[in-house]
Amino acid sequence: EREAIPVRVLNLNNKSKILDEGVVIATCEPVVDIVVRPQEFSGEQHLPSSLDNLEILDEGQRTAVRKLLKEFQNLFSICDADVGRCNITQHRINTGDHPPIKQYPRRLPLARKKEADNLVKEMVDNGIIEESSGPWASPIVLVKKRDGSTRFCVDYRKLNEIMKKDSYPLP
């Protein structure tokens, strides 16, 4: 037996809209609990080579810095797959009462489309992004880096134009 869940509907448009009886306007899905697992680190982690250049410090300072870096070595990413994440809060972007902006994907040459698909699959596999559906959409941009690899970017300029700025933005 199907149970009804009351849903409030808000029309953000100036034109009237009639919803026919029985039309599906939303779906309900179970919440999947996120289980935080402690990350396992091998005893030998490598610190970024940029942190090796400590000549400006005296020997005592170098020892203290190396000890500190070794103690917190798990905070440094050594590849794209081990970036950190925070799931203790949910980020919200204040757009006031502006209706959602849905931009359509920009056309990509076939070779670039395959590259974009591979980058998306890699980010999904690494838990960096997840599939979603919603009223907001921004196009992607693939940017070549100096080393020849590709940086996957999302063009959020339209969203940035309408979002309310924080009174106290982070530095």
From TrEMBL:
Superkingdom per UniProt: Eukaryota
Protein name (Swiss-Prot/TrEMBL): Retrovirus-related Pol polyprotein from transposon 297
GO annotation, biological process: DNA biosynthetic process
Coiled-coil regions, chain positions: none
InterPro entries assigned to the protein according to its UniProt record, in alphabetical order: DNA/RNA_pol_sf, RNA-dir_DNA_polymerase
